[in-house]
C-alpha cells in the first residue's frame, strides 16, 4: 500500500473518530439551549398568587403542560419528574416541578392544588384563564386542542417536559418515552455543566 | 370495604353469580379479564382511566362498558404523534381468538366519565364489559377493578 494511501486511511479514521466524538450526545432529552421561546409565563397558583418563571430563578425548573382528566401521559410525566427530583438526593432542593393545566374550565384551583400534591408536595400546579392559557401555550410551543367525545371532551396536547437551568434558560425537552433514569442522568449532566 | 360498600357487595354478588353461570355454560367460552385496575382520582375529578388484559377463546369484540360509578364509560385509543398525545373514542376493540389484548397505558383504555364518587387507592370499582361475537351473541362480564394510586406508572417500562 502506498504511503499516501496509508496516510489517507489514518486521516479518514481520525476524522471519523473525531466526528463520532463530536456527535456523542450529552443528553437523552431534546437540547433546546438558545430557544427564543418558552421564556416566561404569568399564571396563578392555587392560593391565588401570581407566579412567573422568573420567580424560580436559582432553581432548575421542570414544566409540564397537561390536564387532570388525562389518563396516562400527564401522570406519567409528573411521576417521572417527581421521581427524578427525589433520586437526586440533596440536589432535589434545587429543583422545582411545575404542572400547568390546559383545561382551566374543568381544572379549578382546588383541583389543581390537590392533583399536583398527589405526585409530590414539591409539585406546584398553575392555571390561567382561557386567554392566558392560550398565550402561555403559544409562548411555550405547546399545541393543544379540545376533542369532543360523547358528552365530554379530551385534550390532544404536546407532551414534553421542559427543563430550565438555574438561570431560567430553557435547556432540555423530555419526551414521553424517556425513563426516570434518563431524566436523572440529564439533570445530573445539566447541573454539572457551567454553560 | 371503604369507598362504596353497596357497589362492592353488588359487584361481588354479580361476580359469584356470573362465574356460576359461566361454570354452568362451560367456562371455556368466557373472555378472561386479567389484572384490571383504575387510576385513583382527587376529589371532584370528573374522569379516570381503566386498564386490563383481555383474552377470548373465540373471536369476539369488546363493544361496550359501563360502571355504576360513572355516567358513561368510553373505550379510547391513545397515540403519540410528533410528541403530541392524542385520544380518540373507538367503537370497540377486536379480540382475536386466543390472543391477549392489553388495555394499558399507551394504547387502548377505558375512560370512566362523569364519576359519581372519588376513587381512592385500594377501592374496588365495578365495571361491566359487553362483548359481541361474530354470531351477534352478547356476553356480559362483571369485573372489579382495583384502584391504584394516582401517581402510578403501572404497566409501563420503567
Please describe the structure with a list of short key phrases separated by commas or semicolons.
heterodimer; A: 195 residues; alpha+beta; Glutaredoxin; two-stranded antiparallel sheet; globular; B: mainly beta; Immunoglobulin-like; 1 helix
Q: What would you note in describing this structure?
A:
The complex is a heterodimer of chains A (195) and B (158). Chain A is an alpha+beta fold. Chain A has helices at 3-23, 73-87, 109-119, 130-139, 180-192, and strands spanning 30-31, 42-44, 50-52, 60-66, 95-101, 124-126, 144-149, 152-158, 161-164, 170-174. Chain A has a six-stranded mixed sheet. A two-stranded antiparallel ribbon of chain A has the order 2-3. A two-stranded antiparallel ribbon of chain A has the order 7-8. The longest helix of chain A is centred in the first third of the chain and has 21 residues, at 3-23. Chain A is globular and about 80 Å long. Chain B is mainly beta and 158 residues long. Chain B has one helix and ten strands. Chain B has one helix spanning 5-25; strands at residues 32-39, 47-55, 60-66, 70-81, 84-90, 93-95, 101-103, 108-115, 124-133, 138-148. Residues 22-28 of chain B have low confidence and may be disordered. The chains are: A alpha+beta (195), B mainly beta (158). The A-B interface holds A 68-73, 75-76, 78-80, 82, 106, 108, 110-111, 114-115, 118-120, 143, 147, 149-152, 154, 156-160, 175-176, 179-180 and B 39, 42-49, 71-72, 74, 76, 78, 80, 83-89, 105-106, 109, 111, 113-114, 149-153, 156-158.
Amino acid at each position: 500500500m502506498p504511503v499516501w494511501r496509508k496516510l489517507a486511511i489514518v486521516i479518514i479514521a481520525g476524522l471519523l473518530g473525531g466526528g463520532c466524538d463530536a456527535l456523542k450526545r450529552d443528553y437523552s432529552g431534546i437540547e433546546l439551549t438558545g430557544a427564543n421561546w418558552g421564556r416566561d409565563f404569568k399564571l396563578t397558583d392555587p392560593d391565588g398568587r401570581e407566579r412567573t418563571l422568573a420567580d424560580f430563578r436559582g432553581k432548575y425548573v421542570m414544566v409540564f403542560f397537561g390536564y387532570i382528566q388525562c389518563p396516562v401521559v400527564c401522570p406519567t410525566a409528573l411521576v417521572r419528574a417527581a421521581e427524578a427530583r427525589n433520586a437526586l438526593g440533596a440536589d432535589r432542593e434545587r429543583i422545582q416541578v411545575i404542572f400547568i393545566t390546559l383545561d382551566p374550565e374543568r381544572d379549578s384551583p382546588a383541583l389543581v392544588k390537590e392533583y399536583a400534591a398527589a405526585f409530590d408536595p414539591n409539585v406546584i400546579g398553575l392555571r390561567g384563564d382561557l386567554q392566558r392559557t392560550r398565550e402561555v401555550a403559544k409562548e411555550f410551543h405547546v399545541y393543544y386542542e379540545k376533542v369532543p367525545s360523547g358528552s365530554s371532551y379530551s385534550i390532544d396536547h404536546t407532551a414534553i417536559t421542559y427543563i430550565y437551568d438555574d438561570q431560567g434558560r430553557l435547556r432540555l425537552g423530555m419526551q414521553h418515552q424517556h425513563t426516570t433514569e434518563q431524566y436523572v442522568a440529564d439533570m445530573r449532566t445539566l447541573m454539572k455543566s457551567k454553560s | 370495604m371503604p369507598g362504596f360498600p353497596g357497589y362492592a357487595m353488588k359487584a361481588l354478588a354479580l361476580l359469584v353469580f356470573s362465574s356460576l353461570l359461566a361454570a354452568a355454560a362451560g367456562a371455556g367460552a368466557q373472555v378472561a379479564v386479567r389484572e384490571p385496575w383504575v387510576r385513583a382520582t382527587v376529589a371532584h375529578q370528573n374522569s379516570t382511566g381503566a386498564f386490563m388484559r383481555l383474552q377470548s377463546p373465540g373471536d369476539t369484540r369488546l363493544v361496550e362498558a359501563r360502571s355504576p360509578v360513572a355516567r358513561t364509560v368510553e373505550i379510547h385509543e391513545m397515540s403519540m404523534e410528533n410528541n403530541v398525545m392524542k385520544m380518540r373514542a373507538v367503537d370497540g376493540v377486536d379480540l382475536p381468538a386466543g390472543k391477549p389484548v392489553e388495555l394499558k397505558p399507551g394504547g387502548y383504555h377505558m375512560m370512566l366519565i362523569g364519576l359519581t364518587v372519588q376513587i381512592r387507592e385500594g377501592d374496588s370499582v365495578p365495571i361491566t364489559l359487553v362483548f359481541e361475537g361474530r354470531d351477534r351473541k352478547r356476553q356480559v362480564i362483571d369485573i372489579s377493578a382495583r384502584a391504584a394510586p394516582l401517581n402510578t406508572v403501572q404497566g409501563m417500562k420503567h
